[in-house]
Design brief:
With 289 residues, this protein is α/β, with parallel strands linked by helices. It is built from 12 helices and 6 strands. Keywords: Membrane, Transmembrane, Transmembrane helix.
């Protein structure tokens, strides 16, 4: 609910900014400036209406690239008329974006500030440059803080909404909890590791999630390795269910099933999986020891 509220608020702010930019465009005389402002208004409106605000995507879509180019064109075209727009560079750096867009925005800010020396005079030009640099550093620090928060959110979030597919860095902690739970409740728990070609990883992950119970978790350890924590009443039921699951998955690569009671090292099991031939290998407690 909190994320939805913030998305609605951001959309509203973008729509308000689009309306204000359109009003400003109607009061601007030069044709080039008018076209640039209308383009900016259109970009703000389309962004508000079409862009999906989700914690999984914002830093991968360079949506600040177009306003950076528009701002640079505005300042280069009529620097005397639009010199106050120079401070907008700091705001464009505040939201998460790819590093190359951050670098490009910083270079464009420098390129638009440098020609203002004759217009502002040496003292004001140097002072404005120092203030702009300070504001851009504040905006950059804000962007880096948001990037760190987004990465923390991704570590806690499901990789596919609606499916129990989780990042691989959660598996070690869940292994400890699941092992304690299985001992306490007297059930059989095991780890299923699957190796798959990169292009089949996501389809196989979705199929694995749909074939397991809702209380069981699946993990994407890397682009070619999947894992699942399976729970059964006893080893006999685990054998039956594992065979049905393996045939339903129609996986072509190697797989390993290891009881949590006999699991010594996740890294060792992943290493063994990478050197294993195709097919499902069931590691029994005695053999594993």
């Amino acid at each position: 609910m909190q994320t939805k509220y913030k998305s609605v608020l951001l959309r509203g702010n973008l729509l308000i900014a689009a309306v204000l930019m359109a009003l400003l465009a109607t009061r601007t005389q030069p044709l080039i400036d008018t076209l640039l402002m209308w383009l900016a208004a259109a970009w703000l409106g389309l962004t508000a209406l079409l862009l999906t605000f989700d914690h999984r995507r914002p830093a991968t879509l360079p949506w600040q690239l177009l306003p950076s180019l528009l701002l640079a064109a505005l300042l280069w075209g009529e620097p005397g008329r639009h010199v106050t727009w120079l401070w907008a560079w700091a705001m464009l750096l505040m939201l998460p974006q790819p590093r190359w867009v951050l670098l490009l925005g910083s270079l464009l800010a420098l390129a638009t500030w440098w020609p203002l020396k004759d217009l502002l005079g040496l003292e004001q030009w140097v002072l404005s440059g120092l203030l702009l640099a300070a504001l851009m550093l504040l905006g950059l620090s804000r962007a880096l803080d948001l990037r760190a928060r987004r990465q923390n959110a991704l570590r806690r979030a499901r990789l596919v909404p609606g499916l129990p597919l989780w990042p691989g860095n959660r598996l070690l902690g869940d292994l400890i909890l699941e092992r304690k739970r299985s001992l306490r409740e007297g059930v059989h728990a095991e780890l299923l590791l699957l190796h798959t070609p990169r292009h089949r990883c996501w389809p196989l992950a979705q199929r694995l999630c749909r074939l397991t119970y809702r209380f069981e978790r699946c993990y994407r350890l890397d682009p070619t390795t999947l894992a699942a924590l399976l729970t059964s009443r006893d080893p006999e039921q685990a054998d039956t269910r594992r065979e049905r699951l393996w045939h339903a998955l129609e996986a072509r690569g190697p797989a390993r099933a290891i009881p949590l009671a006999g699991l010594l090292s996740l890294d060792d099991e992943r290493h063994a999986l990478s050197h294993q031939s195709a097919g499902l290998w069931v590691i029994k407690g005695a053999d594993h020891a």
